[in-house]
Amino acid sequence: MREGPEQRVVQRVVQGAGTARHGTGPAAGPAGGGPGPAPVDVVLPCLNEAAALPWVLARIPDGWRAVVVDNGSTDGSAEVARGLGATVVHEPRRGFGAACHAGLLAAEADIVCFCDCDASLDPALLAPFVHAVRDGESDLVLGRRRPQGRGAWPPHARAGNVVLARMLRRRTGLRLHDLGPLRAARRDALIGLDLTDRRSGYPLQMVVRAADAGWRIEERDVPYRPRTGRSKVTGTWRGTWHAVRDMRRVLNQPPLTARVPEVAQ
Questions:
Q1: pLDDT at 67 over 60
Q2: Measured between alpha carbons, how far is 125 from 127 in angstroms, rounded to an integer?
Q3: pLDDT category, 32, cuts 50, 70, 90?
Q4: Looking at residue 262, what DSSP letter applies?
Q5: Which residues pair with 145 in a beta bridge?
Q6: Residue-wise pLDDT tens digits, 208-248
Q7: Between 239 and which of 17, 115, 183, 233 could a Cys-Cys bridge form, CB atoms 3.0 to 4.6 Å apart?
Q8: Are 176 and 217 in contact (CB under 8 A)?
Q9: Beta strand residue intervals within the chain, DSSP E
């Protein structure tokens, strides 16, 4: 089979992770064997998050692997992440979706999680998400952000999220309140969704196509703290507008039920 450009990029840029105290080192393999894949991979899209990375990586549950996808950082984020034991993937194409998908392709674990890399969300909170997926309770678990502290979620960003949640409800029937980045699902099923958006619409497209396929989708409350550093998207009205525009385009796409795989029940 001929490799696509994305597979070639990931193969070329994935760099081995070291063993670190926060659990991003390799997990033990079967008895009598060598190290095997970690039970869970956490994809962390990253653009100039050197200041937040130490806290974020320290919160990765023991035995899980952190996959930091550097999306063109100029502040040494990749070096910081590598020094803390994370696997680093370089994705040269700018865009939240491009970074997330590169991390998904680089993941090896059965279950893959996604989390922002700005310290606004605690990756340790993903543990019950993973249990729900692993135990067959849900196919996709999303974090519903609950702001903690002043400035955690700017009013314009929150308003945009409400509008999108309503549009999603009309499009899919899902009664979700948030389209936040904290989430967990099985890797092979996610790849089977054939996600194509490489900008801000990526997380929404994941939910829409999963809904079209009849996945069991749930959301759980998670605390949302003020981020470290300046937001690249929701920190400004312009960034929020571009995100809403990208997501509106996703919602206007026709259903792809025939192409989207169902998760085995």
A1: yes
A2: 6
A3: very low
A4: P
A5: 222
A6: 999 999 999 999 999 999 877 565 554 455 666 666 777 77
A7: 233
A8: yes
A9: 40-46, 65-70, 87-90, 111-114, 140-147, 183-186, 217-224
